[in-house]
Amino acid sequence: MPQPTRILVTGATGYVGSRLAARLLDEGHSVRVLVRQADRLKHKPWFRRVEIHEGDVCEISKLNDALSGIHTAYYLIHSMTAGSQFGRRDVELAGSFGRVARSVGLQRIIYLGGLGESGEALSEHLRSRQETGQALRSSGVPVTELRAAVIVGAGSISFEMVRYLTERIPLMICPRWVFRRIQPIAIDDVLSYLVAALDLPIGESRTIEIGGADVLTYGKMIKGYARLRGLRRVLLPVPVLTPRLSSHWVHWTTPVPATYARPLIEGLRCEVVVRNDDAAVLFPQIRPMGYEQAVSRALVELIPESFQDAVAAVVERPVGLEISRTVLTDRGMIVEVWQKTVRTTPETAYRAFCSLGGKRGWLYMSWAWRLRAWVDQLVGGVGMRRGRPEDRLPAEGDPIDSFQVERMEPGRLLRLRADMKLPGAGWLQFEARPVTEELTRLVQAVFYAPRGVFGLLYWYTLNPVHRLIFAGLLERLADVAERDGAPRRHVKA
């Protein structure tokens, strides 16, 4: 285990950087982060445990402050969204970082780059990743460069392409790049390598290729994901479909924008596999997992707990006394957040939504809730036969009609998991957040993880009805909370 060290993490708002910061803190290291906007970190559970420097890598004075007193820096910056000149910008930023790092006496830079054998077939994206590593080394500061292919984990753009393509397209027209060999690696293993690199001797630069236990094609990655999700997918090879056309196809059929999809797809023109055993020799304690195990871990994150930071960011936006609605799509989950400010206390609002179901019903269009439960019973579901505890507030594990209480925080939060038959998984969450002594933010969130095309059709077909029902439910809950919290008038006899 590495000795505690004073470390700088750049790119801490990104997919790898945010997870690396948490892992380093757990290992006992003192962590400083350099970010352009500190507000983007405040929903991270480790926010108050790190030292935050706000600034850009191109701002020399701020970069100098961020690197001062640091032993090792992780360089996790890329400019894929910067347009056609992203490669040049990456190299310029890396050169600037390296020069400042040398001037302040930094001991080592650890950099995460991309796999791929140098040559004409190497894409602009992968070439820029490798040129960035060279720019860092040219500063004279020792650089440990880890090179990886597709990182498998919820939130990784590369993995999200696999997720959305597989979930949404039963018959895929596949160009040649889908059948190139690739060596994906789990995010947990990437983090293990990044942390273990701290134990390597300082003094020389190294380039280490890392990958998971399986070498397969992008097509087999799609098939493996489909198998774990219980989906059947057909891949139809076609002789021509350029990376540019493929990126637009991905953009049209998934939430992944073409600006990300194109460089990633172009990177698959050549094989991206580990070609030596340096990682196994240097890090014998790390035994990388296989692809399907990595996907299984990523799918576990399809729970509302993983999306609480996104909900919190929405909730912090100014909201008046009228109902607001926000819809997010992230990591395979659709999240619909309804909000309304009510004149009552959080405790009163909490008791209002904890009283839903059973004899009281669902306050608005209860007949629609009963109709959905009746349909559920017809197909073998639980319907509303279970009712709810009528003599007390619900507890975790209690049934409430077609739901089960999955999580609750007394006075603040109630989360219900849908036990009805669904082409996916669903949750309904209520939260009471204090605004002032007299005002409370009533937050109602719907979480839905669709399974395959039918899951998406189910959501969008019923969405107009759901919007009506959930808007009405929040309005009625607000009325009940304000009525129950109003001071009682005493009439003199």
From TrEMBL:
Any GO molecular function: protein-containing complex binding
NAD(P)-binding domain segment(s): 11-149
SUPFAM superfamilies: Bet v1-like, NAD(P)-binding Rossmann-fold domains
InterPro entries from the UniProt entry: ComplexI_NDUFA9_subunit, DUF2867, NAD(P)-bd_dom, NAD(P)-bd_dom_sf
Pfam families: DUF2867, NAD_binding_10
Domain of life according to the entry: Bacteria
PANTHER family: NADH DEHYDROGENASE [UBIQUINONE] 1 ALPHA SUBCOMPLEX SUBUNIT 9, MITOCHONDRIAL, NADH-UBIQUINONE OXIDOREDUCTASE 39 KDA SUBUNIT-RELATED
Protein name (database record): SDR family oxidoreductase
Source species: Anaerobaca lacustris
